[in-house]
Design the sequence.
């Protein structure tokens, strides 16, 4: 692997995991090269940088790869520690942030995937579970400005990319997120005012089209 | 007035996730009170401290609960800075975290399937587990432990495979971890289990095999909650 100086991000446009890395880099004002990956035909660079999972996102910093989105966000926070800290400095608050980011990781994407991949009763069960998950997250947010408190932080970065998928979850599951978790929707709007988020979000209808493509691919639609 | 320990750990004797927290506490010389939980009849304290996952381990420090074993390990390392278990360099830390989530999520999932399933599904999981073991084996080339010359965070997390994987294999009648195929990993297991903190803090093997057999009969991970 070329030991070049600088930061490269191997990513795929619609990935909420890739977005986490993009948002973190933007929050820190880090200049980087974005390399869109073709996941149907993975590049040598991707395979060499992430031989275990062969997945995006991968952050390559001065030739050294970092894999797994939350690990990448923590890495970015530790290296560019002089600006916009994402994790709290207090160990207990840090532990809480790690727990909730891990919660988002384990619950939101998997449940969302079941929402578009399944039909009938199983889809209905996924929808109920998604509502529960969103309401738990809403309770955790409480009346704070962000999950991180007054400042945009680690859990916000972990969760906000999924807002692009909310339209898809709502349409496929036939429910309204605003109706079940209104405070969460307000939080989404607040986050979208931040440049780091505004720069990386894209039209939820485009995501919905992509989900449609996945459904055809998996023989669901 | 009841004497209250500054550090309390809610656990379950057979759980590798609990042991890894105990290993970390003992490596750092932290005194703690251990509370054994009956997971078929969870205490009100456990449910209060971990209302979302309702699982062990739960570390309670000065009355504040921390849950999820990997989160707990990082908390321990940040709070008691003596004898660090995570490296200082950010890239090394990222690698340590990478391997930890690899074994805790991916390897555990394949082992779980190999343990519970039969037939083709079992065979597939065993194959997948062996691909994972190969990756771990290669990672250990030229190193005594995952963390270098001394055991650290990654070793504590991979630790479940040094003991509990063998137990699972015996209880469910399969073999994935062949010494000849993964020699570095086999050597690591021997060295790891010789470390005093580890050696003195493992559940009794026969009892654990019996427990796993009984657990397999029940046929569900839902019956036991450990993280």
Sequence:
């Amino acid at each position: 692997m070329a030991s070049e100086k600088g930061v490269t991000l191997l990513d795929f446009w619609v990935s909420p995991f890739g977005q986490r890395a993009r948002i973190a880099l933007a929050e820190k004002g880090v200049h980087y090269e974005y390399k869109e990956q073709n996941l149907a035909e993975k590049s040598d660079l991707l395979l060499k940088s992430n031989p275990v999972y062969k997945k995006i996102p991968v952050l390559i910093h001065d030739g050294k790869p970092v894999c797994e989105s939350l690990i990448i966000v923590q890495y970015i926070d530790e290296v560019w520690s002089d600006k916009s800290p994402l994790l709290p400095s207090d160990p207990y608050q840090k532990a809480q942030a790690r727990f909730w980011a891990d919660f988002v990781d384990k619950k939101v994407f998997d449940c969302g995937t079941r929402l578009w991949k399944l039909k009938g009763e199983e889809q209905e069960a996924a929808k109920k579970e998604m509502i529960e998950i969103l309401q738990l997250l809403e309770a955790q947010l409480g009346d704070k400005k962000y999950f991180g408190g007054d400042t945009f932080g680690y859990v916000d970065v972990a969760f906000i990319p999924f807002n692009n998928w909310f339209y898809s979850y709502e349409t496929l599951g036939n429910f309204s997120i605003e109706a079940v978790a209104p405070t969460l929707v307000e939080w989404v709007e607040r986050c979208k005012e931040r440049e780091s988020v505004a720069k990386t979000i894209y039209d939820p209808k485009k995501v919905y089209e992509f989900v449609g493509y996945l459904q055809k691919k998996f023989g669901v639609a | 007035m009841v004497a209250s320990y500054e550090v309390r750990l809610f656990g379950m004797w057979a759980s590798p996730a609990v042991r890894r927290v105990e290993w970390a506490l003992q490596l750092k010389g932290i005194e703690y009170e251990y509370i054994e939980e009956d997971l078929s009849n969870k205490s009100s304290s456990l449910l209060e401290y971990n209302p979302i996952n309702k699982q062990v381990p739960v570390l309670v420090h000065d009355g504040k609960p921390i849950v999820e074993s990997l989160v707990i390990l990082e908390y321990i390392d940040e709070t008691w800075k003596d004898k660090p278990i995570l490296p200082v360099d950010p890239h090394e830390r990222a690698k340590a975290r990478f391997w930890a989530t690899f074994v805790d999520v991916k390897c555990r999932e394949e082992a779980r399937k190999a343990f519970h399933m039969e037939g083709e599904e079992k065979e597939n999981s065993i194959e997948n587990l062996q691909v994972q073991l190969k990756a771990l084996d290669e990672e250990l080339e030229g190193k005594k432990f995952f963390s270098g010359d001394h055991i650290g965070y990654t070793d504590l997390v991979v630790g479940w495979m040094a003991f509990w994987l063998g137990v699972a294999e015996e209880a469910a009648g399969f073999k994935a971890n062949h010494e000849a195929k993964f020699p570095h990993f086999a050597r690591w297991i021997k060295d790891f289990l010789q470390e005093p903190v580890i050696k003195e803090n493992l559940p009794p093997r026969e009892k654990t095999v019996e427990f796993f057999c009984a657990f397999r009969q029940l046929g569900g991970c839902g019956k036991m909650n450990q993280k």
Observations:
- The radius of gyration of chain B is 17 Å.
- Residues 90-116 of chain B form the longest helix (27 residues).
